Structure to design on (300 residues):
């Protein structure tokens, strides 16, 4: 499968990804996906400028990400997708991108969000999106580093965010 | 696994290690040694040797220092010229250290020397050149 990993991270590309994830997965192509980011030329330029040795960076809308990953160019690549929010990652799934795992990397605190772990805060929309992914059979993980265990976090989310799940 | 010792002026080494661990996670066989204002080179050599003893598991040790020709460099150079399995690289920076730490489990000491040199240089970027390539 060309898409090796799908990480929700609102810091987008940063040190842990360039160094640790890139070493663990040997990424050919980092795709940052979020409609707003893809439409912001300054962010696009900067994100593309920091590509690690051996990898290229694209910043694509959700639709373009799904289309690219299903297309012929993706077949020979090892792709690492960084979605800004859980809603973005789940939207990829709903628009037809196959995935086994959605990883919650970093999600900073925003107003109205609640803590899942030291580095992940979830909003009501985020939790509702993750529920859809869970219902479609996707494992929800919470791995900052590549050697963190692939533990299923859905039961913890369901318990800690019960008011948003139902 | 190869041991890594960062030897610097002031407390830069501990700060650099703390920063690197934010990126790559907590590490084994990685220690700082600091040159303080009252130190003699001999005292610094002793502390580096002691640190080598704690970090070297037989696969060698990489000594990373800040400034070529300065006391941390001189002390480490004297050790590296006398002992097998010691390599010395100057100009340590965060791109170099972070890359070494993720590559270290699967590489030998001579390979890590090349990785250090490459990653240290790759980390220096001029934003103007990135934005306006010739």
């Amino acid at each position: 499968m060309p898409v090796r990993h799908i990480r929700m991270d609102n810091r987008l590309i940063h040190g842990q990804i360039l160094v640790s994830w890139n070493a663990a997965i040997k990424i050919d192509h980092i795709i940052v996906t979020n409609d707003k980011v893809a439409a912001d030329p300054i962010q696009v330029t900067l994100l593309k400028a920091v590509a690690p040795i051996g990898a290229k960076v694209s910043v694509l809308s959700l639709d373009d990400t799904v289309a690219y990953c299903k297309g012929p160019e993706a077949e020979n690549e090892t792709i690492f997708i960084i979605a800004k929010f859980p809603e973005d990652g789940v939207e990829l799934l709903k628009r037809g991108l196959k995935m086994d795992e959605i990883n919650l990397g970093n999600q900073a605190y925003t107003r109205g969000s609640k803590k899942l772990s030291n580095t992940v805060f979830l909003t009501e929309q985020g939790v509702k999106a993750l529920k859809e992914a869970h219902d479609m059979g996707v494992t929800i993980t919470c791995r900052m580093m590549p050697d963190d265990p692939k533990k299923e976090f859905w039961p913890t989310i369901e318990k800690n965010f019960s008011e948003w799940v139902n | 696994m190869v041991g890594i010792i960062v030897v610097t002026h002031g407390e830069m080494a501990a700060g650099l290690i703390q920063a690197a661990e934010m990126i790559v996670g907590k590490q084994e066989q990685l220690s700082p040694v600091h040159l303080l204002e009252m130190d003699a080179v001999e005292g610094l050599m002793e502390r580096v040797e002691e640190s080598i003893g704690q970090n070297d598991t037989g696969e060698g040790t990489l000594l990373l220092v800040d400034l070529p020709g300065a006391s941390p460099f001189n002390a480490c150079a004297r050790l590296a010229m006398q002992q097998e399995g010691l390599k010395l690289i100057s100009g340590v920076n965060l791109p170099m250290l972070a890359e070494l730490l993720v590559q270290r489990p699967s590489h030998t000491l001579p390979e890590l020397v090349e990785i250090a040199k490459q990653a240290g240089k790759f980390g220096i970027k001029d934003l103007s050149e990135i934005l306006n390539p010739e």
Observations:
- The longest strand of chain B covers residues 3-9.
